[in-house]
Amino acid sequence: LTELLCKLLIDLHHGYDANLVTEHKFDYEPAIERRADCNFVGLKNGGATCYINSVLQQLYGVPGVAEQLLAVNLEDKVDEESVFFQLQAVFAHLQESKLKYYVPERFWKCFKFWGEQPVNVREQQDACEFFIQIVD
């Protein structure tokens, strides 16, 4: 039985099946597309998070803001659940990612409206209020 199994496996391994060797079988594209030709990375909408995405992308686009925010070295005081750390992570992905978009799930989880209410990704909020709170 062992010899038969070994022979079958070797035959399968060394065998040639023209039906398996078609060009489309070997084309692999990741589930997420590559960075856009315009060289920008988007932020995935979690359902109703467009107000967050638009403010973060506008802040990222202001000359010097991303560079200054990313230059802050937190050294030993790194709290990965802090809003600042997650904001740095979002900006770092917008700057360095090779993918078409980034999903800022950890930012959504750690950001709290007025220090209490977590982000409900299915509930639309005011972009101006979010902006005021994020820069406060």
Task: Give the arrangement of secondary structure elements.
Layout: H1 2-14, E1 42-43, H2 50-61, H3 65-71, H4 83-96, E2 101-102, H5 105-110, E3 112-113, E4 117-118, H6 127-135
Parallel strand pairs: 1-2
Antiparallel strand pairs: 3-4
Helix pairs in contact: 2-6
Q: Helical residue percent?
A: 40-55%
In this structure, how is the largest beta sheet organized?
A: 2 strands, parallel
Q: Could you give the distance between the termini?
A: 73 Å
Query: How are strands sequenced across the largest beta sheet?
Result: 1-2
Q: How would you describe this structure in keywords?
A:
6% strand, mainly alpha, 136 residues, two-stranded parallel sheet, 6 helices
Please outline what is shown here.
By secondary structure, the chain is mainly alpha-helical. It is built from six helices and four strands, in the order H-E-H-H-H-E-H-E-E-H.
3D structure, described in words:
By secondary structure, the protein is mainly α. It is built from 6 helices and 4 strands; from the N terminus they run αβαααβαββα. It has helices at 2-14, 50-61, 65-71, 83-96, 105-110, 127-135, and strands at residues 42-43, 101-102, 112-113, 117-118. Helix 2 (50-61) packs across helix 6. The longest helix has 14 residues, at 83-96. The N and C termini lie far apart (73 Å).
